[in-house]
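Archive entry: two folds, one per protein. Generate the first.
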Amino acid sequence: MARFEVTLLGCGSATPTLRHMATSQVVDLRDKLYLIDCGEGSQLQMRRMHVRFNRLNHVFISHLHGDHCFGLPGMLSTLGMLGRSGELVIHGPQALEDFLRPILALFCKDMPYPVRLNLIDPRQHALVMEDRSLCVYSIPLKHRIPTCGYLFVEKPSAPHLLREMADFYRIPVKALAEIKQGADYVTPEGDVIPNSRLTRPAESPKRYAFCSDTAYAPGIIPWIEGVDCLYHEATFMEADLPRAKETFHSTARQAAEIALRAQVKQLVIGHYSARYEDLAPLLAEAQAVFPETIAGEEGMRLSLIEKKVLCDN
């Protein structure tokens, strides 16, 4: 079964601390890597967690606050020094161009690989990127500046061919590809063998939603409904709700309410304020509303296929 994992590189907010790094994650689907946000220190975290830079072809930036993008210049330079030659595509709001163009012109003009910017409208829910493995959609969020989350949707796999049935009906090799695409098989005698007898359905495609940074925004629920895993910011506890509203962030309870209403399978909270040294109260607040909640931490790997959490830290 194909791998679908999410590695948490950083779960902090605003500034890096000794407890948490700035926001960054790596989605690994079928050994293709997709980076979400690139806070300060992201490339160091990738090295610590043995993430292979050469498999990274797309970067998705949620918004242009420093804790989500200050790691980009260093990573772009490192990729050049490592001899990268293939194109790197960076997706993000319009302000991404204002941030990166001077850096690319001044520090990265002689890089051996091209960088392409795909500027998106964070106010729209739309297809951002598509390849053979998945589709990525933007999720409009509610923050102080234009911000979007991202929904990663795995493409369906072909049904599994039942080898014993293929042998029983002596199906020639040249017909197998069409059967895997849904065709029935017609025997030399003219009998029609239905596809359902020859195959079994593949596993349902997995979906992962990343929502950080945002104030409480129930409007996102239709776009994330039923996802296998939701990462939602939980910067503050409910006791600090006035501060959450002021800064357009969410509390742990609000993140759990979104997860509950969207009927997601698992919630991962993160983007913690530096004021909290202990994550247990944040987790307890969320679990009181949505029990299937875990507190994200650096080094954590979330397996959507095996439905378990692995830790590298």
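Generate the second and append.
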Amino acid sequence: MNLFHKLHDFKLDVLKEVGNIGAGNAATALSRLLDRPIDMSVPRVSLIQFDEIAERVGGSEQVVVAVFLRVEGEAPGNLFFIIEQKSAKAMLNTLLSIQVESEDEYTEMEYSALSEIGNILAGSYLSSLADFTKLTMMPTVPSIAVDMAGAILSFGLLQYGQMGDSALLIDTAFLEGGEAMEGHFFLIPDPESFEKIFQSLGVPNE
């Protein structure tokens, strides 16, 4: 049991480093897009079970905005960037100066902007993981949805088939003018991909 905990801590330490670098890359990419500095908090990184994902964003009936895509390459998997509606609207208003017209409806422009932010974040974290592992990991074109968290995860399962049991969760907050806007980044590697990722990172098998 002690060895298991040590191994788990070692895995988390390695993944935290990936999360930190990914957050730095994401902040740089967003700053370039918006042509002004964007800060991101030090991300909180954890390994969770797939069925805990909805709980982490307020429950399966919580309406959220989700950008999701398939990761292709040597360590395939699925990726979700999920934000609560309040944070999504604050992000549009504060980061992009888009005047929010409705609290629970989104215009085409708002959808497009959120999809682009999700795409930038996904690309930043994936590229940092790919750099670390030396594995090829490429994102497909992202989809965006506003729905209950449980429905979005179910749709992801239907669209992409079997998902792995475990997810890498990176919680990040954008900081702009003293206001924090939180986002949840879930990478769900296919069952055989987690082992490949950890082997590439030098983590011994359990």
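Annotation attached to the second fold: The longest strand covers residues 63-73. The radius of gyration is 17 Å.
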